[in-house]
Amino acid sequence: MTTTTGRGNRTRAQRNRAQGNRAQGNRAQRNRLSPDERRSQLLDLGVRLLATRSLDELSIDLLAEEAGISRGLLYHYFGNKHAFHEAVVRRAADDLIAQTAPPVTGDPIERLLASVTAYVDYVIANYEGYLSLVKGAAGGNEAIRQIYDDARSALTDRIFREDAQGQIIDDTPAARLLMRGWGAMTEDLVLSWKVDPAGVTREELLAMMALSLPALVSILPQTS
What is the pTM of this model? Predict the structure, then answer.
């Protein structure tokens, strides 16, 4: 009996030491990061969590649990829940802009199709978070609305930089108005298709989105 108890105590002590060593290792890893690096790491985690849940479901408690840190440390980095949400949404918007950048070379329509394809893939992979951004912008949250508007402008206006020779669209006030409308249309197409494809394949969806722009451009008022 005594021998068994002693062996059990040693086993528990070994487990406790192992857990303590792992905890010390995690703390050491965190301590090696600068505050900016640690904040960036937490934002990346927030974006990954946002991909499969709404913004309201992305709580400080959830991120703290997933990151293995205290709630107090998260408040230290972000101040409050609203600031945390805004920071995560802005990081997600930045990721969207970066991931949908068109190739630097190639036929203009092919480059547009590549960008549209990346956009569709992003929205599908991050549907819950993207939908939260759209709903938050429409729901009167001014900070989220600004992030949404900035992202939308970046996505639609960059064609005037990427297509500086006007092979797809000339840079005119009417063209910029059209691009904003096309951006809204393509967003609604993707979100609606995600809920109910209505027999439309992914390839057909991509073709509708990419080829609709030149068709719309063809009816723009001619400039002298």
Answer: 0.78
